[in-house]
Amino acid sequence: MTATTMMRREIDEIPAAAARLLDAAPQDRFRAVGRALGRIGPRAVVTVARGSSDHAATCLKYAIELSAGVPVSSVGPSVASIYGAALHLDRVVALGVSQSGRSGDLVALMRACRQGGAQTLTLTNSVDSPLAGAAATVLDLCAGPEHAVAATKSFTNSVLSGLWLLAYWRGDDGLQAALRAAPDRLQDALALTAAPLREELTRTDRLVVIARGPGLGIAAEVALKAMELCGIHASAHSSAEVLHGPSAILRDGFPVLALGEPAEAGLQDTIDRLEGQGARVLTAPAVTPLHRFLDPLLQLAPVYGALEAAARIRGRNPDRPEFLAKETLTV
Questions:
Q1: Domain boundaries, the chain
Q2: Distance of CA 14 to the CA centre of its chain
Q3: Checking CA distances to 33, which of 91, 102, 253, 282 falls within 20 to 30 Å?
Q4: If residue 94 lies in a helix (H) or strand (E), which one and from where to where?
Q5: What GO biological process, any one, is recorded here (predicted)?
Q6: Whose CA is closest to 52, among 150, 132, 189?
Q7: CA pair distance 104, 96, nearest whole angstrom
Q8: Which CATH number is 192-313 given?
Q9: Listed residue (297, 295, 274) closest to 210, CA to CA
Q10: C-beta of residue 101 within 8 angstroms of C-beta of residue 132
Q11: Cα dihedral angle (85, 91, 92, 93), rounded to 10 degrees?
Q12: Three-point CA angle 201, 256, 304, nearest 5°
């Protein structure tokens, strides 16, 4: 492929999509819903999501737990869609995250959460979708149309939207300031070169991605994109969990992509151990720190570019990966 792909254009639109969240209308909604969460004082949050949206929910899990001290857990959609279990969710917030909002299992779970007493909220790029209709409150991701199968700007806006809610919920002025700076910082991040990573993604057929805490959802997102775009057998683990079994195969030059700053607790120790047993540890372009909840998202921006470029070099179509569709409808 020689023409600019839809995916590449949508990667380049990430900063503009992030900037739309600063407009008056979405800010009014974030402020109102975030402050309502503060009044509710939820004892827990459950997330309703699949695929890239579930990875965004993982990013928000760590942010909420670290900021609000409220436990966050993903509920398997089949609990409602196949098994029809009744849920008991008094004073719990059910947070749906979905680009399209059209998968039946997510809709069934959101309805079950609402019937179980949860305060239901959906972040979606399709405010007229069935998932939006199943929730009491809906927030528009404002990502704009996204045509490539692989989500990029809708993923980043999912994370940013959830963080805006959290910032108003907790009255966190520092996080709000960082979020206002995010569009410009994402633009800067897109200019970073990821050529060494692109070259590795072009030739490898296997990859493990590691990160910690707020970066774990980003690691899962990178592993997913490596599979769907480049045909690489990839998986993601925390830099602690990888030592509980998976590290046994990380030898003889096995490529491991470490996301985050080496100074992050435990990450450098894991890198040293894996290199010592023969793994080949790769890194993403370094970014200037902005906020611990946003730095992994900044690092993702150039990695998206490396994945798109590697897919093309491998002769694959990043806009339309084989056997996949933009809207994945599951039960």
A1: 6-181, 192-313
A2: 13
A3: 102
A4: strand 92-98
A5: carbohydrate derivative metabolic process
A6: 150
A7: 13
A8: 3.40.50.10490
A9: 274
A10: yes
A11: 120
A12: 45
- H or E element that contains 31: helix 24-40
Contacts of 98 (CB under 8 A, 6+ apart): 48, 49, 50, 53, 106, 122, 123, 124, 125, 126, 129, 131
pTM above 0.85, yes or no: yes
Please enumerate, as own/partner, the contacts of 173-180 that have beta carbons within 8 Å and a separation of 24 or more.
174/291, 175/67, 175/291, 175/293, 178/290, 178/291, 178/293, 178/294, 179/21, 179/291, 179/294, 180/22
Q: Which structure tokens are listed for 318?
A: 């990043």
Task: Tell me the one-letter amino acid at 104.
Answer: G
Average pLDDT, the chain: 95
Q: Is the dihedral of CA 236, 151, 75, 178 positive or negative?
A: positive
Give the up-direction half-sphere exposure of residue 176: CA atoms within 13 A in the CB hemisphere.
12
- 155 vs 221: CA distance, rounded Å: 9
Q: At what angle do helices 153-170 and 51-68 cross, to 10 degrees?
A: 20
Tens of pLDDT, residue by residue over 280-295, are 999 999 999 999 999 9
Indicate the class that CATH gives domain 6-181.
alpha beta
pLDDT digits (tens, 9 = 90+) for 65-91: 999 999 999 999 999 999 999 999 999
Tokens found for residue 280: 């080949």
Distance CA 277, CA 149 (A): 37
| Cα atoms found within 13 Å of the Cα of residue 17, Cβ hemisphere only | 27
